[in-house]
Design a protein that fits this description.
The chain has 89 residues and is an alpha+beta fold. The protein contains three helices and five strands; from the N terminus they run βαββαββα. A hairpin with a 2-residue loop joins β4 and β5 (69-74). α2 crosses α3. Residues 3-88 form the DHHA1 domain.
Length: 89
């Protein structure tokens, strides 16, 4: 999910809610193409560090976390982020 103007706590709460209901990865990106995006990615059954590593390796993202949840930032366009997510997910 991509949305501009959402604070980190709200984004984290959204990801936590999605993780409880769905398998796989749940991700929330807040920001825009000009300023970049902050992200939170969560999963109850997959290692989120693999997604963070792909964003880091391909787009220079910063951040990290634990297997169940990572957070960080990336200075890239939404279309570039979506392309990396398609490759990883």
């Amino acid at each position: 999910m991509f949305e501009d103007g959402i604070d980190t706590n709200t984004a984290r709460n959204c990801v936590n809610g999605l993780v409880e209901k769905y398998s796989g990865f749940s991700a929330f990106f807040t920001g825009n193409d000009e300023a970049g995006y902050s992200f939170i990615i969560g999963s109850k059954n997959a290692d989120c560090n693999t997604v963070a590593a792909a964003l880091r390796n391909k787009l220079g993202a910063r951040g990290g976390g634990k297997p169940v949840m990572v957070q960080g930032s990336v200075k890239a366009a939404k279309s570039e982020i979506e392309e990396v997510l398609k490759e990883v997910l």
